[in-house]
Every structure is written in structure tokens, then in C-alpha cells.
Design brief:
Largest sheet: 4 strands, antiparallel
Order of helices and strands: HHHHEEHEEH
Structural class: alpha+beta
Radius of gyration: 25 Å
Strand content: 15-25%
Number of domains: 2
Length: 155
């Protein structure tokens, strides 16, 4: 909301723009409106998968397993279709040592992102250390793009 306020002020040539703290204080003190992050937001799709009875839960699990089996079979039969799972594995500290002072020295964190192709049973690992990059969404996305390019080349 504060960003919208700033845009409004800039578009209407208002010279004084209040800081975010002042903006928040005015809303909370004068208008009794609080800024809170929702504790648990769920969309309609997520609510659909929250069963109310044991029968619904069993039915949803059966649907999920059938969909998963269908996707695996499609991945095996159709070479233009890829079913893959991925995970950021445990952070590896380098150098690994059990000896006194070396154990407590600053270590270099190494990240290992693994992607497994369920159809071809091939595994791709992407490794980097904290000096090169962090373990943010952009790095994970880069690894996924490299995996997709590799799959397109080999198909």
C-alpha cells in the first residue's frame, strides 16, 4: 500500500512524501487499521484438497496416485514429455575435518541441487559454492533452465 501511496504522490506532483514509518503510524493511530501478514492464506484450489471426511481424504489420495502413475507412464512412453523431481540437498561444508582448530575455522558452504528424471532414471547434479552464488530462487531457476536445455538437446 505504501508503494501505491508513493506512486499517487509522484503522479499528482505532491512534493512531500511521508516515510513508510509515518504512513504506518497514521493508519494505525488515526484510522485504527493494522498491517498484518495473513497467518495462513489458502486459495480455493488449496482448500479443495483439504478433506473434511476420511472418504474424501482416501478419494483425493487415489486421484493423486493415479495422476502420478499416469505422468510416469507418459514420461516413459512420450520422449517429448519429461517427469522430474528435484531437491536442494544438504549443504556441504568444505574442508571437512574432525581435527581441533580446523574444525572451528570458517568453512566454505557448497550447495548441491539434484534433479532426477523419472523416465530415463538419470540424475543431474548442479554444485556451486557460496562465493559464486547463494541458494536463492534465481540459482534454483538457473539450474532448472540448464536441465531443460540439456533435456531438449538429448531428445
Amino acid at each position: 500500500m505504501y508503494d501505491l501511496y508513493k506512486e499517487f504522490c509522484e503522479s499528482n506532483n505532491i512534493s512531500y512524501i511521508a516515510s513508510s514509518e509515518v504512513y504506518r503510524q497514521i493508519f494505525t493511530c488515526e484510522f485504527n487499521i493494522l498491517f498484518l501478514v495473513p497467518r495462513k492464506y489458502q486459495c480455493d484450489v488449496c482448500n479443495k484438497y483439504e478433506p473434511t471426511s476420511a472418504d474424501q481424504k482416501t478419494e483425493l489420495q487415489d486421484e493423486y496416485l493415479a495422476r502420478e502413475y499416469k505422468n510416469k507412464e507418459k514420461g516413459k512412453n512420450d520422449k517429448e514429455f519429461c517427469v522430474a523431481v528435484f531437491d536442494l540437498e544438504q549443504i556441504l561444508s568444505v574442508p571437512k575435518s574432525e581435527v581441533g582448530l580446523a574444525y572451528y575455522k570458517l568453512k566454505l558452504s557448497t550447495y548441491n541441487f539434484t534433479i532426477f528424471n523419472l523416465a530415463s532414471k538419470e540424475c543431474s547434479c548442479y554444485m556451486w559454492h557460496e562465493v559464486i552464488a547463494k541458494k536463492d530462487a534465481s540459482e534454483i531457476g538457473s539450474c532448472l533452465i540448464l536441465f531443460i536445455y540439456d533435456q531438449v538437446k538429448t531428445a
